[in-house]
Design goal:
Layout lengths: L3 H17 L11 E2 L9 E4 L4 H6 L2 H15 L11 E4 L2 E4 L5 E4 L6 E9 L4 E6 L2 E7 L45 E8 L2 E6 L2 E8 L23 E2 L6 E10 L2 H10 L6 E2 L9 E3 L4 E4 L2 E4 L4 E6 L6 E8 L5 E8 L11 E6 L3 H4 L35 E8 L2 E6 L2 E7 L23 E7 L4 E9 L1
Antiparallel strand pairs: 1-13, 2-5, 3-4, 4-13, 5-12, 6-9, 6-13, 7-8, 7-12, 9-10, 10-11, 14-26, 15-18, 16-17, 17-26, 18-25, 19-22, 19-26, 20-21, 20-25, 22-23, 23-24
Length: 460
């Protein structure tokens, strides 16, 4: 039996030891733990490397590349003998060298929370879906006169690789804590829309996260950040420590609610969910079920809101059946073909259309017919639709001859149709409506039971 004085001493020492260790933190409700506090289980090596390129490699080359990066993480530092990435008292430590710590799993829409602590002169970051980056650095560094885009004094948390001057590029406020203190980061990413809180202060507000890997390409060839990819913790020449790394995947329904809540007060609902008051054209081609506009199987035509528009934004939710095909009539004249007599038809289409319809290779649809495309003129980026049977959220902006389509938080098309050479229009067809400046907004049905709800307009 231990004497009382020894017991008190042991208790005091155990309390001191506990104070020196980071508090064991449980993930918030709904979150998974990405770093277990013991080892690098669930993590691999990575680099500033286009995740699309990695996925396009054959399996053997991809495995070899990942193995090379991962080996770099575990190489010993010549001065300390410790691996570049190692665990100390429940904290993930990097000495500023080696490949980036990269999650083995890819993520789509998510909420990420973590804490970091760094040193003077630091320059690091958090890659989202494999793309750079939420910036972390020493705000006491002077601005670099040779790099006017480097402005540490503005604080951490900004989307450093966005175009200078664009929303989100620089943080809204300086929220960094002094050296020696832990900083808390929260990131919400839905589609390409990113919000960042640093130490509970909003520093990036629902900004488009630009794809660093495509920035040097001509505008027509750029694509958004991938729909899925890993989280990466960047190394950049100075020690940085990480802990309490938690992530919650955001469901399609939650993502849609989040996106639809932004700026909703500026839009006017044009479908009341009960009847077709204010609509004209193909009113016999649709039915209304539980507040949802449902296109009828086997029926075509154009249903349009009977108010002429010039420049405008439209918002809507839609759900596709397998092989579903419909379209948004833009500046439709009230008669004729929406795709050619109107300014255009923006495609609403299942990306697996060729397979579902069992089309032979020589009958596959043109790239300018896929979802979001300016029909027959400009192709949209693909891969951003939600699974069949799930609601999608889309916003369309029409200003002059420019059309922008944002699908589930990602801009999949941004094009000036006046720049399209009409000689290149699909099928060589004439396009008398391309330069229309006014017309009606509606739906161009193609016999499939596509569903629509919460349809709203904001004239510009």
């Amino acid at each position: 039996m231990h004497p009382p004085r020894l017991i008190k001493t042991l208790l005091a020492l155990s309390g001191l030891t506990a104070a020196l260790l980071p508090a064991a933190t449980q993930p918030p409700t709904g979150f998974a733990t990405l770093f277990n506090g013991r080892d690098l289980t669930g993590w691999r090596g990575g680099d500033t490397f286009d995740h699309r390129r990695l996925l396009d490699m054959n399996a053997a080359d991809r495995a070899a590349q990942i193995a090379k990066w991962t080996a770099s993480m575990h190489e010993p530092n010549p001065k300390t003998g410790k691996p570049h990435w190692h665990v100390e008292k429940g904290t993930l430590v990097n000495d500023g060298f080696g490949a980036y710590a990269t999650t083995e799993k890819d993520f789509g829409d998510f909420e990420l929370q973590l804490e970091y602590r760094t040193v003077a002169g630091a320059d690091s970051g958090i890659y989202l879906r494999g793309a750079p980056q939420v910036q972390i650095w020493d705000i006491n560094q002077p601005d670099d006169p040779k790099r006017p885009d480097r402005r540490p004094r503005l604080g951490s948390g900004g989307l450093f690789n966005n175009t200078p001057g664009s929303p989100g590029r620089d943080p809204l406020v300086v929220a960094d804590r002094p050296f020696g203190e832990w900083n808390h980061v929260r990131v919400v990413m839905v589609g390409s829309r990113v919000s960042v809180w640093l130490n509970r202060q909003l520093v990036v507000d629902h900004a488009i996260f630009e794809n660093y890997y495509d920035q040097k390409l001509p505008a027509a060839g750029r694509r958004p950040v991938p729909p899925r990819g890993p989280i990466q913790l960047q190394t950049h020449g100075g020690e940085i420590r990480w802990r309490n790394i938690f992530l919650r995947e955001i469901s399609p329904d939650e993502a849609t609610r989040l996106l639809a809540s932004r700026g909703a007060d500026d839009f006017q609902r044009i479908f009341n969910g009960r009847d077709l008051s204010g609509w004209a054209g193909g009113v016999d081609s649709v039915a209304i079920r539980n507040g949802i506009l449902v296109w009828q199987q086997g029926k075509g035509g154009v249903l349009y809101w009977d108010r002429e528009l010039g420049d405008f934004q439209a918002r809507l939710h839609f759900k596709l059946p397998p092989g579903g095909n419909n379209g948004l009539a833009i500046r439709y004249p009230g008669t004729g073909n929406a795709a050619y007599d109107g300014m255009t038809e923006l495609q609403i289409l299942d990306e697996n259309y060729n397979t579902v319809k069992q089309l032979p290779p020589d009958k596959h649809i043109d790239p300018r017919q896929y979802h979001g495309s300016v029909y027959g003129m400009v192709a949209a980026a693909r891969g951003y639709l939600r699974p069949i049977g799930t609601w999608n959220f889309q916003e369309v902006t029409v200003e002059g001859s420019r059309i922008k389509v944002e699908l589930n938080g990602t801009v999949i098309l941004d094009a000036d149709v006046s720049a399209v050479d009409l000689a290149t229009v699909m099928g060589g067809r004439a396009h008398p409506g391309r330069d229309r400046t006014r017309g009606f907004f509606g739906f161009a049905g193609h016999s499939d039971p596509v569903e629509f709800r919460e349809i709203a307009i904001r004239p510009l």
